[in-house]
Amino acid sequence: MVLRTLAMPADTNANGDIFGGWLMSQMDIGGAIMAKEIAQGRVVTVRVDGMTFLRPVAVGDVVCCYARCVKRGNTSVTINIEVWVKKVSQNRLASATRRRKRCLSTLPLIIRENHVLCQRNKKVPGLPGT
């Protein structure tokens, strides 16, 4: 898990659901956190290869972004990001966690002084799969 936050009323669309752009922003932040840990430097998002909204997110849902690095190059990393939502209720039996969205992002690594910040086999402490 790279990010966990609470969906708030200010983030709703005209239908009362959480605005898709807000979810995309959370995913971008989560992916950037992972890419920044891998690169140990500045990163930016250049491309999102696809995004699928599976179910709406409601106000009060706990939004969790999970990220996994699927490809490391000399100048970019490709990160698979999924959003899972936990519906929190006072009734424990009513609480549930479901996947809401998934995407694949490519984040280029910013190169400073002609030094590549990410090496193909670089180990990043604390990251799954490294």
TrEMBL record:
The protein's UniProt keywords, in alphabetical order, are: Hydrolase
Write out the GO MF terms. long-chain fatty acyl-CoA hydrolase activity
Can the keyword Hydrolase be found in this entry's annotation?
Answer: yes
Family annotation (InterPro entries): Cytosol_ACT, HOTDOG_ACOT, HotDog_dom_sf, Thioestr_dom
Q: Which PROSITE patterns match?
A: HOTDOG_ACOT
Q: Which CDD domains match?
A: BFIT_BACH
Question: Biological process GO annotation list?
Answer: acyl-CoA metabolic process; fatty acid catabolic process
This protein's superkingdom?
Bacteria
Q: Which GO terms describe its cellular component?
A: cytosol
Q: Which residues form a coiled coil?
A: none
> Residue limits of the HotDog ACOT-type domain?
1-115
* A UniProt-annotated Pfam family: 4HBT
Keyword field contains Membrane: no
Q: Please explain the role this protein plays, according to its UniProt record.
A: Catalyzes the hydrolysis of the thioester bond in palmitoyl-CoA and malonyl-CoA.
Q: Which family does the record claim for this protein?
A: Belongs to the acyl coenzyme A hydrolase family.
Q: Which PANTHER family match?
A: ACYL COENZYME A THIOESTER HYDROLASE, ACYL-COA THIOESTER HYDROLASE YCIA
Q: What is this protein called?
A: Acyl-CoA thioester hydrolase YciA
Protein's organism: Klebsiella pneumoniae
Q: What is the lineage of its organism?
A: Bacteria, Pseudomonadati, Pseudomonadota, Gammaproteobacteria, Enterobacterales
